[in-house]
Structures are given as structure tokens and as C-alpha cells.
Design goal:
Elements: E1 2-7, E2 14-19, E3 31-36, H1 38-41, H2 43-46, E4 57-64, E5 67-70, E6 85-87, H3 94-98, E7 104-109, E8 115-122, E9 128-135, H4 136-139, H5 144-193, E10 197-201, E11 207-210, H6 212-218, H7 222-225, H8 239-250, E12 256-264, E13 270-281, E14 287-296, H9 298-320, E15 324-328, E16 334-337, H10 339-345, H11 349-354, H12 357-365, H13 371-383, E17 389-394, E18 400-409, E19 415-424, H14 426-489, H15 495-526, E20 531-535, H16 536-550, E21 555-560, E22 565-569, H17 570-587, E23 593-603, E24 606-613, H18 645-655, E25 660-665, E26 669-675
Parallel strand pairs: 21-23
Antiparallel strand pairs: 1-2, 2-3, 4-5, 4-9, 5-6, 7-8, 8-9, 10-11, 10-14, 12-13, 13-14, 15-16, 15-19, 17-18, 18-19, 20-22, 23-24, 24-26, 25-26
Helix pairs in contact: 14-15, 15-18, 16-17, 17-18
């Protein structure tokens, strides 16, 4: 147990601190703080003169290192209690004799080096000494008989005062023991429940005690920890410093020691920890043990390692970048740069190593074609700290740099610097200039070729129209004369002759139909488009009604989805639907009951229209021939036609920016799909 006395700043209250011995394992420790007002119960008694002499005085003292502290008011010194000190090694010092642990009445010197007669003694089981004294000069001025009488009186006062002090002390002791037991229980509970690892270590490095948090940190039990030394649970590289920590603290070279170290876990891995150790002493100042607090910082270490790795990666990326990179603070002072920056701007290495902002800026300014504009832009960006910038900088030597600048912002979006990236784009600018020239030349050639192609197409269209128009007359003549021969000379011809003339008429009429279809295909290609809103539902229903009127004997379920609206040329879209519906009507002719459906669905944000039938269908291997002019997948004997209708549909859809395709199975029908631009 240890007892120490302190005083509050006002000097009115004295605090007696009683501490337990924490070196005993598993017993915990604690502190009891007793508060009393010495001006009421102590100083009045100490102020009583033990004799009638003017220099008579009583003092209560305590050792503090190499000094002695006076705990009570002094008659010949105005310093408050606990503030006046004297070296303990002074010769024949009465206060030092009082703390030596023996009672005596002898000649001494007092706190102001005056020779005195004093009765001195150390209070039992307390760090205090008591001095009752009178100056020798005053004492020897009377008779020896008076001296003996004075000495007897002093001794009597000393004995009475000592008895009073002991009575008070043991009263405090009984109260303190009760409070101490309560404090020990609280300390033990706090020690064991603490979330921070705690341990007690002896001079030999052996662990005397530990709490559960420290045991859990290392995957061990408290009992297992009490059987090991600090070195046994420490990483080999940290053992030397740990042992130095123990040695220096017990040697008195330090009062506390803090270090980061690695502890060995039961499963073999190591736990990074922040260790703080303090030396505990007994009431005589002798070392007892070390108390250590351990905080697991493994997560912090992992974070630090990740940051180090990221910094290495960032540094590597910066140095390997083809860009010149410069980082400056909010005042425009250089913070860091890569080698490419100095290389691009031709800045000498000694300037970069010394980070001379003025010389580096001067080196840059000397190479700029327009340095004033560059400086003006830099100042503007630093004035508006949250703005990014990208410009092209021209140099005097003909090079061009792409310059990108961005602010560096913290979590609160406060700017703490700016990063600059410079990339040499000289070759890119030259390539762009060459490409622009090539594009200009190409556009001129395309315009010339387009003009020539337009003229050629117009000539071809005129030729096709003229040929088709001019062929109609001879064809009509052939058809008319063939019919006249059959009517006028039919009886004179045999059956074969009449058959030949009928075949001539059929082929002539087919040729005329081909010419009409070619003219329609040409018109679809040449006619100007007039976009408007087209009700495809109404158009499909009208075309279906026309087909029913031509062949009223057929049974066809004609289904048209409602509210189908598109944007395009009404005439061309009607022609496209007409060809698709005529196609479906034709290829379902052999069905007793047929079905033709017109509808639409939405796919990927676009409308897909379709015309579906359950007719003859076709083999998908030949789907590539569907939309080519004059290409047929069925014979004329099966299904008549010229092979122009689907080609016309494709051209109309393409002119509307869409596409057309088909799916089918033989004898299962076909579906034709098409899309239009918005």
C-alpha cells in the first residue's frame, strides 16, 4: 500500500491518496481519495506553540524525491502548504531526521539554517514526519532549568500531538479500507471488462496478469498468458525493443514507453498493436511491475499498406505516363512532377531538384509562343479553384501541347492544389491537318462523282422510261394482230396454230405487265417524298376490301391491328402495303380457308410492322433472293407474277430509312417484317 498527499490550487484542501499494490496477480488494484479541510482539523493544532518561546514551531513534512515538502503552514515562511521545499541532504536537517524512521531529541538546523533544539519522529505506516523545535539562541538565553522544563513540555506536546495524529490516521485508515475494497471491486470489473488489452509484467518479462480483451486478441486464455513471457508472444524482430522497454523502465531511465509491435497469435499469424507501458512503484518508490495497454491496429496497418501500394502504383503510373505531370499547391508552388514534364519543357534537372518555382516558370515562359495568354489563364484558374480546363498551347519551336488542368478537392470539396497534364500532340495536329486536306479533296471528288452519278442515273431513268414507253406500241400491235388472226383466220388454222397464237398473246401481255412494273419501280425510286402521318390500319383495311371485291368467292380471315400509325410518304407506304397484301393473297389461294394478318409490335424502342399469312411459304435457304428484281421462288404455273413487287417494297422501306426481312416455312406460311424511321 502507498500513501501520498497533494493539495488543491486554493491551498484549502489536502488530499490523501491511498493505493494498493498491483503486483499481486488477479487481485486488481485501486485508489481511494480522502478529502479533508486541513484549515479546520490540522493546521490549528500544528499552530499551537509547544512552549512559550517565540521561535517554537511544529511542522509536518514528507519526502518527494531528493526534496522535503512542508505540509503545514510555517511561522517563519509565508509560502502556502505543500509549496515550500528544501533539499533532504542538508547537514543536520531536522526534517530529514524526522523522515529517517526514528524518534529523537537533539540539536539540528531548521528550514532556514537556524540552529535549533528539536524533537523529531516519523509517523508509523505513513510517509510523514513531525518536527517540534525551538531556536537554540532563544533556548540558551535562560537558565538550564528552564531548558529542561521547556524540553519536557515539548516532549509532552509532541507525544500528545502524535497521539492525535495517530488517532486521526487510524480513523482515516478504517474508512479508507472500506472504500479501498469497493474501489478494488470496481477496478477489477473495469480491468476485466475493458475492450482494450491490459496486462501486468514483472521485471523478468513474465506476464503476471491479463484481461480477457488481451487474451482474445491473441487467441489464448488468461491462464495461458500467465505462463508466458513478453518475448514468447512477440514477433522475433520486435523482441529486442520489447526487452529494452522492460529494462529501461525498471532501471528508471523512463517513466513510460510506447511502441508499435507485433504479437504472435495462437494460429501463427501476427497482430499489429500499439503498446503503451508505464512503471508502477510502491510507496517507497521501488519498482513493482509494468502495466501495459494494447490496442489492435491490424486494420490500420492493412489500410496503411494499401495506401503505400496505391502510392507506389500512382508513382509508377505517373513516371510511365506519356504526359508531363505537374502538381502544385493552392499558392502555385510545385509539389511534385514526373520526369516527362521536365523532358517536354526542357527544364534542367538542377532546377527540378531544387524546386525553384521562379526558374522553372522562366524556363517554361521562354518556350511559349504566347506566354502572356498562358499566365493569364493560370491566374484565372487559381482564382476559380473548382474549374477544370483544357487548351492547346503553341510553342515557339512549332510544337503543340494539349494542356489539361483540374483542381484537387478534399472530402469537403475544398481545393488544396491543382494538377496539370501536358501532352505533346504535334504529330496529331500535323496528321489532323493532312487528314483535313485529304477530306477536303475527297469531298470534292465525291461531289464530282455524285454529280456525274446523278446525271448518269437521270439518263438511265430517261432511257428506261423511253424504252418502256416505246415498247408498249409494238407489244400492243403484236397482241392486236394476233387476236385479229385468231378471229378472222381461226377456222383455217389447225389446233396447234391457234395454240401458238394464244401463247403469243399471253407472253405479249406478260411483257406489257413487266414494263408497267419496271415503270412503277422507277417511279418509286425517282418520286420525291412528302412525309406525313399515315394511318396504316385504314390503308390495310381498304386494300383488304379491294382484294375481297376482286375474288368474293374466297374465304379469307383478314385481321388488321387497330391504331397503327406511321410517319412517311402516304403514296409510297400504300404501295408497299399493297404489294405485301397482294403477295399474301396470292400465296394463300390454294387454302380453302386462309388467314392474312397485319399488325405491329414494339422491340428495343422501335415499332416493327408485319404482314403474316398461312399460305405456301418458302424455303429459308432462298430468302436472300426475295427482294431482288425478277427473282421468283415459285413457278409461273403455281403462282403468277413478275418478281418486281417485293423489290418495290424494299426500295420504299429503304427510302424511309427502315429495313425489311421475312421468315417462312414451306406450306406453313410467311411473315414479312419492316421498320420505319421516326
Amino acid at each position: 500500500m502507498s500513501i501520498s498527499i497533494t493539495v488543491d490550487p486554493s491551498g484549502r484542501f489536502v488530499y490523501a491518496t491511498i493505493g494498493t499494490n498491483p503486483s499481486t496477480p488477479r487481485t486488481g488494484g485501486g485508489v481511494v481519495l480522502l478529502e479533508a479541510d486541513p484549515s479546520k482539523w490540522l493546521y490549528p493544532y500544528l499552530g499551537l506553540r509547544p512552549m512559550a518561546a517565540a521561535s517554537a514551531e511544529t511542522a509536518l513534512v514528507q519526502a518527494d524525491g531528493d526534496d522535503i515538502v512542508f505540509l503545514s503552514p510555517l511561522r517563519h515562511n509565508p509560502a502556502p502548504p505543500l509549496t515550500f521545499r528544501r533539499p533532504a541532504k542538508a547537514a543536520h536537517f531536522a526534517a530529514a531526521a524526522a523522515l529517517n524512521g526514528r524518534g529523537a531529541f537533539d540539536a539540528f538546523v531548521d528550514y532556514w539554517n537556524e540552529p535549533v533544539f528539536a524533537a523529531v519522529a516519523r509517523l508509523d505506516r505513513a510517509p510523514w514526519g513531525i518536527v517540534v523545535k525551538v531556536d537554540q539562541r532563544e533556548a540558551l538565553a535562560g537558565y538550564w532549568q528552564q531548558i529542561r522544563h521547556t524540553g519536557a513540555t515539548a516532549l509532552a506536546a509532541f507525544v500528545g500531538f502524535w497521539a492525535l495524529i495517530l488517532m486521526l490516521f487510524f480513523t482515516w485508515k478504517r474508512r479508507g479500507e472500506t472504500a479501498l475494497r469497493e474501489s478494488e471491486a470496481r477496478f477489477r470489473d473495469t480491468f476485466e471488462r475493458s475492450t482494450i488489452g491490459q496486462s501486468l509484467t514483472g521485471r523478468d518479462g513474465k506476464l503476471l496478469n491479463a484481461n480477457q480483451a488481451f487474451a482474445d486478441m491473441l487467441g489464448l486464455s488468461i491462464e495461458e498468458l500467465q505462463q508466458v513471457t513478453a518475448a514468447q508472444i512477440t514477433h522475433p524482430d520486435d523482441v529486442a525493443e520489447t526487452q529494452e522497454c522492460i529494462r529501461s523502465l525498471f532501471a528508471g531511465e523512463r517513466t513510460a514507453y510506447r511502441m508499435e509491435k507485433r504479437y504472435r497469435h495462437r494460429d501463427g499469424h501476427f497482430v499489429f498493436a500499439d503498446m503503451s507501458t508505464t512503471l508502477l512503484r510502491d510507496d517507497h518508490g521501488a519498482p513493482l511491475c509494468l502495466i501495459t495497454s494494447v490496442v489492435d491496429i491490424s486494420a490500420r496497418k492493412r489500410t496503411e499498406e494499401e495506401l503505400r501500394f496505391r502510392n507506389v502504383v500512382l508513382s509508377t503510373q505517373q513516371e510511365s505516363s506519356i504526359d508531363g505531370i505537374l502538381v502544385v499547391d493552392v499558392n502555385g508552388k510545385m509539389v511534385s512532377s514526373n520526369g516527362r514534364f521536365a523532358e517536354m519543357w526542357g527544364i534542367p534537372s538542377d532546377i527540378m531538384e531544387s524546386r525553384s518555382d521562379e526558374r522553372a516558370l522562366q524556363s517554361v515562359m521562354e518556350k511559349l509562343a504566347d506566354p502572356e495568354a498562358f499566365i493569364s489563364e493560370v491566374k484565372r484558374l487559381h482564382a476559380t479553384s473548382d474549374e477544370k480546363s483544357r487548351d492547346e498551347i503553341a510553342l515557339k519551336d512549332g510544337r503543340t501541347f494539349d494542356c489539361y488542368s483540374a483542381p484537387m478537392l478534399d472530402a469537403d470539396r475544398r481545393c488544396f492544389g491543382r494538377v496539370w497534364h501536358f501532352r505533346d500532340i504535334t504529330e496529331i495536329k500535323r496528321a489532323e491537318a493532312a487528314l483535313a486536306a485529304a477530306y477536303g479533296e475527297l469531298e470534292q471528288r465525291v461531289a464530282e462523282r455524285t454529280s456525274e452519278l446523278l446525271v448518269t442515273n437521270q439518263e438511265l431513268e430517261s432511257f428506261a422510261y423511253a424504252v418502256a414507253h416505246d415498247l408498249r406500241g409494238p407489244l400492243r400491235g403484236i397482241d392486236g394482230w394476233s387476236q385479229a388472226v385468231l378471229e378472222d383466220c381461226g377456222p383455217q388454222l389447225d389446233e396447234r396454230g391457234r395454240k401458238y397464237l394464244k401463247t403469243v398473246r399471253v407472253e405479249t401481255q406478260r411483257m406489257a405487265q413487266l414494263i408497267d412494273d419496271l415503270l412503277e419501280l422507277s417511279r418509286v425510286t425517282r418520286a420525291p417524298m412528302r412525309r406525313e402521318t399515315v394511318d396504316l390500319t385504314a390503308v390495310a383495311q381498304e386494300l383488304g376490301a379491294c382484294l375481297r371485291a376482286e375474288r368474293p368467292e374466297r374465304v379469307v380471315d383478314f385481321v388488321v391491328a387497330p391504331a397503327m400509325v406511321a410517319t412517311g410518304d402516304a403514296v409510297l407506304l400504300r404501295a408497299a402495303l399493297q404489294n405485301l397484301l397482294q403477295n399474301a393473297w396470292k400465296f394463300t389461294a390454294k387454302r380453302t380457308r386462309a388467314r392474312v394478318e397485319v399488325g405491329c409490335v414494339s422491340e428495343d424502342g422501335r415499332t416493327v410492322y408485319h404482314v403474316r399469312d398461312d399460305g405456301a411459304g418458302f424455303d429459308m435457304r432462298f430468302a436472300g433472293k426475295l427482294f431482288a428484281p425478277f427473282q421468283r421462288l415459285h413457278s409461273l404455273d403455281e403462282f403468277p407474277g413478275t418478281g418486281i413487287g417485293l423489290a418495290t417494297v424494299q426500295r420504299i422501306i429503304h427510302r424511309h430509312g427502315g429495313k425489311v426481312w421475312a421468315t417462312a416455312e414451306v406450306d406453313q406460311g410467311a411473315t414479312f417484317y419492316f421498320t420505319l424511321t421516326a
